[in-house]
Amino acid sequence: MSQVHTLSILCEDVDGIISRISGMFTRRAFSILSISSGRTEVEGVNRITIVLEGEDQVIEQITKQLNKLIPVLKVSRQDPDTTVARGLLMVKVSADATNRTQVVESAKLFRAHVVDVGAESVIIEATGSPSKLQALLDILEPFGIRELVESSITAMSRGPKAMYPAKL
């Protein structure tokens, strides 16, 4: 049965690594739901988080293929029960003097922040799990969503164990 999986990839910070990794998925006609990349606590090492949908056997094959790429140091499948996954959402919502208070109160329910206020709209910033961000959008939709941008998911396992030792 197909389900959503999150892979964390530690790799050397080299030119073109994102292209090489995403190209591997493209060649196999496999869709990436979300991809993000950023630096880690180790200089010269980046962490790429990829969210994808597929069957366990396919994800296992992808993991093996990723491990064959030279700049890749480690690939880890995140366990949904022990992973903290977050995304960033910015949404511009129609809001004037008649409903601005309701829009702001709705955002506060989700611990979201109003980052800009205009005469006819507000921009709200929220971080959270994909389901939390979708629930916020569902609440704001009746007010009128004018514009929306959502970042990729970033994930990390709970507990003291790190994916890679802090010192190489």
Comma- or semicolon-separated keywords:
single chain, 168 residues, alpha+beta, Alpha-Beta Plaits, 2 domains, five-stranded antiparallel β-sheet, four-stranded antiparallel β-sheet, elongated
How does this structure look, described?
20% of the residues are buried. Strands 5, 6, 7, 8 and 9 form a 5-stranded antiparallel sheet that branches. The protein is built from 4 helices and 9 strands, in the order E-H-E-E-H-E-E-H-E-E-H-E-E. A hairpin with a 5-residue loop joins strand 2 and strand 3. The chain has helices at residues 17-27, 56-68, 100-109, 130-140; strands at residues 3-12, 32-39, 45-54, 72-78, 83-94, 113-117, 121-128, 145-150, 154-157. The protein folds into 2 domains: 3-78, ACT domain (Alpha-Beta Plaits), CATH 3.30.70.260; 84-154, ACT-like. Chain A, domain 2 (Alpha-Beta Plaits). The mean pLDDT is 91. The longest helix has 13 residues, at 56-68. The chain is elongated and about 60 Å long. With 168 residues, it is an alpha+beta fold.
* Strand segment count: 9
As for the number of domains, it is 2
Mean pLDDT: 91
Distance between the termini: 38 Å
Q: What name does CATH use for the topology of the largest domain?
A: Alpha-Beta Plaits
Uncertain segments of ≥5 residues (pLDDT<50)? Answer: none
**Shape, please?**
elongated
Q: What is the radius of gyration computed over CA atoms, rounded to a whole number of angstroms? A: 19 Å
> What would CATH call the architecture of the largest domain?
2-Layer Sandwich
